[in-house]
Specification:
about 180 residues; mainly beta; Jelly Rolls; six-stranded antiparallel β-sheet; five-stranded antiparallel β-sheet; 2 helices; 13 strands; globular
């Protein structure tokens, strides 16, 4: 497994070794020994989520109030998504910055986000399936969101999907009403 630290402190990209043969592909998408060596801590799993999205579906920026915060380990089981990580920790040297990783069913990368980081995903093709491990069970009272089009964050969203066709962004009413970052 190859690991790359993102431009956001506390976020990493994990690229597994793929084992392919005539039957298909096998990958280890999470391995605790590798994870702990890189992050210096275990991943305390409390919930696993899965979402399936059409091309152009834009989810986020979501985060959990800190404390307690929620760490996530995110991977794409099918399709392709752009995963955007935003640093929302005021005391962090990368506060207000973002980085992104394409998660897809070809490279099989995963992204780890520490507590205090925001997260948004854009589906780049129909039926893109995202699976993410969470360090905290969902608690609506701790749920927060920020507008993905906030001009202060200036996230560069792709306008074409994996197949080269233009994307039409689709958001939930809750995400469309999300406040700006500095609100």
């Amino acid at each position: 497994m190859q690991v790359r630290e993102l431009a956001i402190q506390g976020a990493w990209e994990f690229t597994p070794t793929k084992f392919e043969d005539p039957r298909g592909v096998f990958v280890e998408t999470f391995k605790s020994t590798v994870f702990e060596k890189v992050t210096g801590r275990p991943f305390d799993l409390h919930q696993v989520n899965c979402s399936v999205s059409a091309a152009g579906v834009l989810r986020g920026i979501h985060y959990t109030a800190t404390p307690p915060g929620q760490a996530k380990y995110v991977t794409c089981a099918h399709g392709a998504l752009l995963d955007v990580v935003v640093d929302l920790r005021p005391d962090s040297p990368t506060y207000g910055r973002w980085d992104s990783v394409v998660l897809d069913d070809i490279h099989r990368r995963s992204v780890y986000l520490s507590e205090g980081l925001g997260h948004a995903v854009l589906s780049l093709e129909d039926n893109s399936t995202l699976v993410y491990l969470c360090s905290l069970e969902y608690s609506p009272e701790l749920d927060r969101q920020i507008d993905v089009f906030d001009t202060d964050l200036a996230i560069e969203w792709p306008t074409v999907g994996r197949d080269g066709r233009p994307l039409e962004f689709t958001r939930s009413a809750k995400d469309a009403a999300a406040p700006s970052w500095q609100a």
